[in-house]
Amino acid sequence: MCGGKIKSIHARQVLDCNGRPVVEAEIVTQGGAAGCAGASTGTSVGSGEAFVLRDGDPGFYSGLSVCKAVRNVNEIIAPALIGMDVEKQEEIDDKLIELDGTKRKTRLGGNAIFAVSAAAAYAAADLKNMQLYESMTKKRPRYLFAPASNVINGGRCGGIKQDFQEFMIVPKGITSVKEAIRMVVEIFMYLPELIAKETGREVDLGSYSGHAAPDEDPFAVMDLLERAVGKLGYKKNICYALDCAATGYYDVQEKAYRYRGKLRGREEMIAVLKKLSMSYPFAFMEDVLEENDFEGFAAARKQLNTVVVGDDLLCTDKERIQKAVKIGAADGVIFKPNQAGTVTEALEAARYAKEQGMLVIPSGRAGGVLDDPEKEIGFAYEFHMFKTGAPREGSRTADINFMLRTEEKTGIPMLDIEKLPIMAHLGEAGY
Ligand code: 2PG
Ligand code: MG
To answer: pTM of the predicted model, to two decimals?
Structure first.
């Protein structure tokens, strides 16, 4: 049997959903199976993530092209992997790690390596004539993750600067993807009307494809969201999530946060978030402090009335997750396979987190690629929620459509997050 042996690997530069160049790799096996994947990169990138190798020539794609990484696949990785078996993902990933030889994959580029690793996973699925999630585990998943959908974005827009990056809505108390997505989309579509009525402003497109925040005060944003949810009659079935992406407003020199125009210490930021978590039902809060402040996260975790999740903090990296577990810095992890650099390392990190009782939340990257494998892996391994982004923009609608299609095809119900012991705080009265 040699059907799964790699016959050829070819990489090229294509574009992600933000128009940025990415590496795409295509693997064909001796038996004719094929897998193709692009390595998404993200906009707010944690410093512990696998390195994204870009060419850096300001006169060419503004420095964002990935020709070197493409060459590394075609000239270094491809010859070394020819003949390997796509069904042996771990062996392929070990070889990729060995070829690079650096912790953060700085030599060949995490983007070169990840495109090949993901393409191998897709080729293995194609070999078995299966979808990726079916080919990864023999177990039929018991549930599909619940969407955490970004509806209002931070950033600077129309003279308003909202420091927190993403305000999300999360369906709860239901097990139907179809219903969950309907609620999300209806709320998303109603928000511009409500915002215009309340603020007299046209709603702009936010930097993460959601609606641009109409207020710099997160409490005002949350009040608007609550009103939209209430008006549509979905209060019982919607809770919230927040990605602060706090590294974005952390001033390294000052060792303090530039929040709402003033420098604030860690305790002050925790106090703001604590009040938010006491005022609204939050399923989780992500990256509440800057990405290396593990002790600060541990302090926040004790005080916030929600689940504290690490994205830039943990970078889908097992060592960082182990450190977080040791000091109690987080109860959940965002799962972005390209952060780890290979499918095997990402999966190992996420499975370890799940074994530790942590919430695991797959997420596409902002302006990512359509074939990011995070959703298929997350479904196969029964991860809990899925950051789907806003219900517009190519890669995000691909994620949402994956959920709709999978529910329809398999009949597997969506996870009701309210039933998770880690979500006990949602059941407490007083919001
Ligand atoms: C995040 C994602 C957006 P990026 O921070 O969680 O969903 O952004 O892909 O830029 O890291
Ligand atoms: Mg994040």
So the answer is: 0.97
